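Homework-ish question, so no full write-ups if that breaks the rules, but can someone show me the predicted structure for this set?
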Amino acid sequence: MARVVVDVMPKPEILDPQGQAVAGALPRLGFQGVTEVRQGKHFELEVDDSVDDETLAKIAEGFLANPVIEDWTVRRVEA
Amino acid sequence: MSPRIGVITFPGTLDDVDAARAVRYADAEAVSLWHADADLKGVDAVIVPGGFSYGDYLRCGAIARFAPVMTSVVEAAAKGMPVLGICNGFQILCEAGLLPGALVRNEKLHFVCRDQWLRVENNATAWSTRYDQGAEVLIPLKSGEGGYMASQETLDRLEGEGRVVFRYVGGNPNGSRNDIAGIASENGRVVGLMPHPEHAIDALTGPSDDGLGVFFSALDALKPLATTA
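A: Not a homework solution, just the prediction itself:
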């Protein structure tokens, strides 16, 4: 078994209204100095050792992310 | 025999009943299709209605596109069957790759629910022939993730090929690129739009009956099939 993390982020050129709303709230809460926030998704997958990187890439690109609007990264981490 | 138009129900679909009613208003037969059943029951066209299929989990339409019925819809669309995606249905068609681009959270984050003016930009698709080119129609819009996004290259191609079918007028409600409310596939048989024509088929229950033209248009698109059958 291995733990795999897939991070999905809106592409830089895609408007991220949720991130903007978070960024806009911070000064109101008294936190200064945060100039930009981008909001994405973080997936943690427990996978069998038989699942290779190519398969993980297919899962990320074909399902967890929409490549039209999102970038993704896959990495194996210590469980 | 009147044309048979299928209306798909997914878990979380809301507007299948109104879509079926609109089909009947256009004197066609509405056929219920079930997400888990790949059988299209011999329909002549398919409507993917609005709602929140699979609770909008992951992304709107991301899970619905893998439903057995969608495999059949993609195959039928490749053979030229008219397919209409409304709201969540539009999102599903984009996720399924039948239409380019994607729908994202509204620019101002608010769920928008209002009667929206649209301009008909292309009256040559399977779902828009009953409109005059450039006609303005009043159709309800109700969505939280209706912002149409695509790469500049895709937008240029859509505009260049006249594949923007409906465009918002009187203000952009959700941040859609180029004020796009609805687009068509290359062959004009698959159309997706965020506003709800099925909610505007009778002045008693909607702001207008401007939406009826969408459903009557499909009958025109199916006529050659009906007469040879």
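Now go work out the reasoning yourself. Hint: Chain A has a mean pLDDT of 94.
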